[in-house]
C-alpha cells in the first residue's frame, strides 16, 4: 500500500475508534525504525517532522529519505509537518511533498488564526494535502515552539465556528494535555472531546501523548482522538538508548558505531510497536 493522504488514514481510525500513532522522527534512523515497526505490526502510521527537524536536516533531504524508505511499503503511511507557525515553512513543505501540515496560529487572536488557516487550507488543497488546525496553545514547549503557560480553552461555539469556517481536516483542542514529560498524571477534560465531535464530527488530534496512562489513551481514543501525537517518548528512548550503549562501550573500551545504531533502532522499533498495539492500530493495515 503506497503513501496515502492523512484524511484516508484518519477516516477509518475515526469511524472504528482506534488511534493512529503520529510519531515525530528526528533523523534517518528513527524514520526507518518507526516505518519498520508499522510494517511489523501491520499498522497505519503518521510520520511527523517538527519545524526544527525540517530546518536542521533540510526539507529536500528529509523528503528524499521519506520517498526512499516508503517505496513499496505495505502499510498506509503519511508525512505530516507538526506545529508550524511559519507560513513560509508550510509552503516549502507542501511544495516539496508533505501530505499534511499543522498550521499553529494558536498565539494569534482567533479571528486572525481563522483567516490565515483558511488560506493554508486553500494552499494545501492545491497540493492534495490536508490541514490540522488549533485555536489554543498546547501547554509546554516542543522543539522551541509553544509556551509553559497553561492553555486557555475557547468556548465550544468559538471552536465550532473555526471548524466550519476553515474546513480543516483534523482539530487539536486543549484538554489539559501538555507537551513534554508530565510531572504527574494530568487531569484531562474528556467531555470536551465528546462535545466537539457531537456537534461537528471530525478526527481529533491528541497532543502531549507521552506520559498519559493506558486508561486515558483508551478513553480519549474511544471518544474520537484518531491521531495520537508522540514526540518526547521517542526522543527519550532514542537518546537514553544511546547513553546506555555508550556507557557500556566506555567500560569495554570498544567503539563500534554500527552497533550503537542497531541498539537505538531496536529500542525505537519496540517503542513504536508498543504504541501501535496500545492505540489499537496494530493489524488495521489492509
UniProtKB/TrEMBL annotation:
Look up keyword Manganese and say if it applies.
no
List the catalytic residues. 82 (proton donor)
- Give UniProt keywords alphabetically: Metal-binding, Zinc
InterPro entries from the UniProt entry: Aldolase_TIM, Class_II_FBP_aldolase, FBA_II
Q: Pfam families from the xrefs?
A: F_bP_aldolase
**Kinase in keyword set:** no
Which residues of the sequence carry a binding annotation for Zn(2+) 2? 104, 134
- SUPFAM superfamilies assigned: Aldolase
Give the cofactor note: Binds 2 Zn(2+) ions per subunit. One is catalytic and the other provides a structural contribution.
- Cofactors required: Zn(2+)
Biological process (GO) annotations held by this record are: carbohydrate metabolic process
An MF annotation (GO) of this entry: zinc ion binding
Task: Report residues binding dihydroxyacetone phosphate.
Answer: 180, 208-210, 229-232
Q: Where does Zn(2+) 1 bind?
A: 83, 179, 207
This protein's source sits in the domain of life called Bacteria
- Name of the protein in its database record: Fructose-bisphosphate aldolase, class II
Q: What organism is listed for this UniProt entry?
A: Actinacidiphila yanglinensis
Amino acid at each position: 500500500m503506497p503513501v496515502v493522504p492523512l484524511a484516508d488514514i484518519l477516516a477509518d481510525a475515526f469511524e472504528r475508534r482506534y488511534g493512529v500513532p503520529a510519531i515525530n522522527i528526528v533523523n534517518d534512523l528513527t524514520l526507518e525504525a518507526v516505518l519498520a515497526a508499522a510494517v511489523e505490526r501491520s499498522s497505519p502510521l503518521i510520520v511527523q517532522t517538527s519545524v526544527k527537524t525540517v530546518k536542521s536536516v533540510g526539507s529536500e533531504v528529509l523528503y528524499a529519505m521519506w520517498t526512499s524508505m516508503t517505496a513499496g511499503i505495505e502499510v498506509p503511511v503519511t508525512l505530516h509537518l507538526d506545529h508550524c507557525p511559519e507560513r513560509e515553512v508550510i509552503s516549502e513543505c507542501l511544495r516539496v511533498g508533505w501530505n499534511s501540515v499543522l498550521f499553529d496560529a494558536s498565539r494569534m487572536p482567533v479571528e486572525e488564526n481563522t483567516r490565515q488557516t483558511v488560506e493554508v487550507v486553500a494552499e494545501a488543497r492545491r497540493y492534495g494535502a490536508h490541514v490540522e488546525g488549533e485555536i489554543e496553545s498546547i501547554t509546554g514547549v516542543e522543539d522551541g515552539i509553544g509556551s509553559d503557560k497553561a492553555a486557555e480553552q475557547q468556548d465550544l461555539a468559538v471552536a465550532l465556528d473555526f471548524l466550519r469556517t476553515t474546513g480543516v481536516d483534523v482539530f487539536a483542542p486543549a484538554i489539559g494535555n501538555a507537551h513534554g514529560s508530565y510531572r504527574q498524571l494530568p487531569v484531562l477534560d474528556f467531555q470536551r472531546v465528546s462535545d466537539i465531535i457531537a456537534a461537528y464530527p471530525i478526527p481529533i488530534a491528541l497532543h502531549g501523548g507521552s506520559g498519559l496512562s493506558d486508561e486515558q489513551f483508551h478513553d480519549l481514543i474511544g471518544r474520537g482522538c484518531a491521531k495520537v501525537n508522540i514526540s518526547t517518548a521517542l526522543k527519550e528512548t532514542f537518546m537514553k538508548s544511546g547513553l546506555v550503549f555508550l556507557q557500556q562501550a566506555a567500560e569495554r573500551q570498544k567503539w563500534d558505531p554500527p552497533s550503537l545504531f542497531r541498539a537505538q533502532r531496536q529500542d525505537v522499533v519496540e517503542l513504536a510497536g508498543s504504541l501501535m498495539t496500545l492505540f489499537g492500530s496494530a493489524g488495521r493495515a489492509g
